[in-house]
Design a protein that fits this description.
By secondary structure, the chain is an alpha/beta fold. About 55% of the residues lie in helices and about 5% in strands. The chain has 2 domains: about 40-200, P-loop containing nucleotide triphosphate hydrolases (Rossmann fold), CATH 3.40.50; about 215-315, no CATH class. It is built from 13 helices and 4 strands. The longest helix has 20 residues, at about 220-240. It is elongated.
Length: about 325
Amino acid sequence: MTTTTSNPPIVRPNEAAARSQRVADARSAFRQIKIVHPRQEAIIAGLDEVRRSGIATRGERQYGITLLAESGSGKTTAAEHFRDGIERLGELPEGSRPVLIVKLMSTGTARSLFSSILQALDDPFYDRGTEPNLHKRAVQAIKRDNVQLLVIDEVHHLSRRSSAATHVTDSLKTFLDSGLLPVAFFGTHDADKLFQSSRELNGRLFPPLTLPPLDWWADDDRDLFLDFVEDFDTAMVDKQIMKVASGLVEEDIARPLCLASSGIIGRTCRIVETAAINVVREGRHAVTRNDLAMAVNSWAIAHSFIDYNPFVEIEA
């Protein structure tokens, strides 16, 4: 079997506009699909333990936790699901932000960290002031908005600048040591060296959370992957992206899809989305195995996530 990619056929302007709108609507609908699998539920439970421990020991030294995993593993999705769930409980006064997710800027400096915290807490002047001033205001804003857990996302940016990293970790240690709140550090394994080199910070951490890729050849992982793609298939129909289910759970589709994505859920979603968008362009009703094979070529291989096409190799 050979797979090729081709440019969309030439169509009349009004047909092109309608097709473009179908694609835009489909892409918007994909953004609304939120599926939390059991491994992410374990992450959510771990975050809640840290949050509740912080509440129980408020004013005493706080502790942090790490979650370092491949990009696309579902770290941020899990954190957002946890945040939204805690906010829905309505246990705190209106306007409270019990779980605050802050994405660390690529500059990875202490000033940018405090600025990001203030921005996440809707401070209109988040980028104005000296570093000490921003630090003081960040602490005040955290207390004002009843933040119970701070999630620092993209923490691997710190590993690019060792001097800045030391300064930022020192600042975060003051958050913990002052009893302000616990901190969860999310990022890729590029941050491993950062934590390996900071024994003082490591001494303030609980055992790490983990979110490894799914291994098709491990029974539990395979079952989890099959459950996920079945739910994703159903969601595409529920969101009216596809007219009928595409049979993603069938082994001759699921197995190469898992291998093509390296068992990383985010990559799985991007491959299926790429295939589905082509189906939408052509006005068809469901994703086929060939659509997925072409999507691996045009997305996974094109972006260097993988250097072969499992759909082709397995069939051969």
